[in-house]
Amino acid sequence: MTKSELIAQLAAENPHLRQPDIELIVATIFEEITAALARGQRVELRGFGAFSTKQREPRTGRNPRTGETVDVSAKAVPYFKPGKELRERVNESGKPDDGKRRPAAPRRTPVPA
C-alpha cells in the first residue's frame, strides 16, 4: 500500500473528514516519526511495533564496478520491530500479497464436440 492509497482508504472509511485534512494527518505522523528517529529517540506504537535506529560500525566495502576497496563510515540506520499483535495478525492471514503474483486462471475443460 502506498501513501496515497492509505489516504484514499482513510478518506473512504471516514467520510466526515476532508481529504486534505487526512493528508495533513498522515504527513504529520510520518514527519514526527522521522524527526524522533533523527533525534535518536525510539517511537513505539502499541500493538503495531517500534521504530528505532541501529548503529552500523565502520567497515571496508568494495566498489562493485571496479572492485576497489572503499572505506564506509559508521552510520545510524532506521529499524522497525513489529509488535506481537501485528505479527499474529500477519501470520494468521497467510502470505502477504505483494501485488506481483496474480491468481491462476481457472482451467477450462474442453467441451466434447
From TrEMBL:
Name this polypeptide is given: Integration host factor subunit beta
Q: Which domain of life is it from?
A: Bacteria
- SMART domains from the entry? BHL
What organism does this protein naturally occur in?
A: Plastoroseomonas hellenica
Gene name of the record = ihfB
Q: Which SUPFAM superfamilies match?
A: IHF-like DNA-binding proteins (SSF47729)
Question: Into which family does the record put it?
Answer: Belongs to the bacterial histone-like protein family.
Its quaternary organisation is: Heterodimer of an alpha and a beta chain.
Which stretches of sequence are listed as region Disordered? 52-113
